[in-house]
Design brief:
The chain has 508 residues and is an alpha/beta fold. The protein contains 17 helices and 17 strands. The protein folds into 2 domains: 175 residues, Aspartate Aminotransferase, domain 1 (Alpha-Beta Complex), CATH 3.90.1150.10; 270 residues, 3-Layer(aba) Sandwich (Aspartate Aminotransferase, domain 2). Helix content is 35%, strand content 14%. 46% of the residues are buried.
């Protein structure tokens, strides 16, 4: 075993990992990377099929991001945001507000808030903790100090690991152990078409959203929850959601129109909207209409730089705006710095900000903060990442990657143990089952997803499952050949681990 692996075994405690299993084998120790390729201490190469846990946008060791960090290091790495401002954080906040507001203009909610303020923090959990605390206190200050703000989120929700964020979540495996620390929040059914009890469609070899037969009962459940809260005289303070796709719930995509319907209902009942875009932000859900293949997207005249893309939604970076939803809080992290440094942001409106203004002795300050809030290195990386995302080359690459991923994923439908293949933009989840005709799931204890991902690693492709759902979320620089290799490794791994033999040639 390599000496670095020995040191890891001796001292490092890994997140979301059963360490007894971890200590039984030599771990893959990553030492370098470039583009979509990672290398370990033994010189082996791997494709990064989940963007280093959903963070890396442009690829590893990107020259423009590297240069931005070097320039900033020549000035200063970090100074406190408690009492001081700095250049890159100010510029990044301005840019984020501009991007969010540019997209919000297309929103058609009854009330369309415009973002004006950015609160920086460290990661997705803290970004959501900020949104939660702000929404809680804003509600108390606008409805009265005797009000008891409550929150509504989705079944299977995961919004982070801080105590407030965990309280918003509803995954027993992650959250039940901490029940004694949490405050109660309400949950409402997620639009999980593949396993929805109201979906009357029989299993077919296509995304379950495409063949669903229902009467939008999932929307009715949201309306009923909000109506019940109103009857009790306590409208929800906020409705919290991941737009277009729930990540840790199992890569659950939302059918077209669901997001707009439920957010209109929530806002109509007085709830603020909290969009958790920690995973979905910065173009991850695609450059255009997430419901259609790239070839089918509507085309309108564009500038010469964008004429080859020609999509009216090609500049959308935030998933909530794909259906014209303008939230009151927008939580961002993961891809904010292109996957280089831990940094997060919570965007909110002038109305929320104004509720915290007052004379010093009124103590209306937002008493919350972090030592590295708005740090210069993270902000510099964030600015460089946004510049890359805005470039014609990046828009073109994302369009091609989305199409490549969609085409390659079709090969998986031939496998009896693949129940559902769901893709939203540049994020995909492949749900493994005992048999696709019955949808019978594997028990978590069987480690079906873990074993398939281990088999993929032996083939030089790295990703991590969510239960029995294998995630594919490659960096935006991933080539067509690399996508083919990622999906091919998954295909072969399912055959090896679950025993379903289907020739790759027949699958294609």
């Amino acid at each position: 075993m390599h000496k670095l692996a020995q040191l890891d075994h001796a001292h490092v405690w890994h997140p979301f990992t059963q360490m007894r299993d971890w200590l039984r084998r030599e771990p893959i120790v990553i030492t370098s990377g470039r583009g979509a390729v990672l290398r370990d201490v033994h010189g082996r190469e791997y494709l990064d099929a989940n963007s280093s846990i959903w963070t890396n946008l442009h690829g590893h060791n990107h020259p423009k991001l590297n240069a931005a960090l070097k320039r900033q290091l020549g000035k200063i790495a970090h100074s406190s945001a408690l009492g001081f401002a700095n250049e890159p954080a100010s510029l990044l906040a301005e840019k984020l507000v501009q991007l969010a507001n540019a997209e919000s203009r297309g929103a058609s909610s009854a009330v369309t808030p415009h973002f004006s303020k950015v609160f920086f923090s460290d990661d997705g959990s803290t970004a959501m903790e900020v949104a939660l605390k702000l929404a809680y206190e804003f509600t108390r200050r606008t409805r009265g100090p005797k009000s008891k703000p409550r929150f509504l989120s989705l079944t299977g929700a995961y919004h982070g690991d801080t105590v407030g964020a965990v309280s918003l979540g509803h995954i027993d495996l992650f959250h039940k152990a901490y029940g004694g620390l949490l405050f109660k929040t309400d949950q409402v059914m997620s639009p999980y078409c593949y396993r929805c009890p109201f979906n009357r469609a029989k299993p077919e070899r296509t995304d379950a959203r495409e063949t669903r037969k229902c009467n939008w009962e999932c929307v009715g459940k949201v309306e009923a929850k909000c109506a019940t809260a109103r009857k009790r005289g306590n409208d929800y303070a906020a409705f919290v959601f991941e737009p277009l796709m729930q990540g840790a719930a199992g890569m659950i995509p939302q059918p077209a129109g669901w997001l707009k319907r439920v957010t209109d209902i929530a806002r109509g009942h007085g709830a603020l909207l909290v969009a958790d875009e920690v995973m979905t932000g910065f173009g991850r859900t695609g450059i255009g209409d997430y419901r259609l293949p790239i070839a089918d997207l509507p085309r309108v005249p564009r500038s010469p730089r964008q004429s080859e893309i020609g999509n009216r939604k090609s500049e959308i970076l935030f998933a909530s705006h794909a259906e014209g939803v303008a939230p009151d809080f927008l939580a961002l992290a993961k891809g904010l710095t292109g996957g280089y440094l831990p940094m997060a942001a919570t965007l909110t409106t002038q109305a929320v900000f104004d509720a915290f203004l007052g004379e010093y002795e009124q103590f209306k300050t937002f008493f919350h903060g972090h030592s590295f809030t708005g740090n210069q290195l993270g902000a510099a990386a964030g600015l460089a990442s946004l510049d890359l995302l805005a470039g014609a080359a990046s828009v073109k690459a994302r369009a091609r990657l989305e199409g490549d991923l969609r085409r390659e994923l079709k090969s998986l439908w031939s496998l009896p143990n693949v129940g559902d293949v769901r893709q939203v933009g540049l994020a995909a989840g492949v749900e493994l089952v005992r048999n696709w005709r019955t949808r019978e799931p594997f028990a978590l204890a069987e480690r079906a997803g873990i074993r398939v991902c281990e088999a993929m690693a032996r083939r030089g492709v790295l990703t991590r499952p969510i239960g029995s759902v294998v995630v594919l979320m490659p960096p935006y620089c991933t080539t067509a050949a690399q996508v083919r290799r990622m999906v091919g490794a998954l295909h072969e791994a399912v055959e090896e681990v679950l025993g379903a033999r289907t020739p790759m040639s027949a699958a294609r």
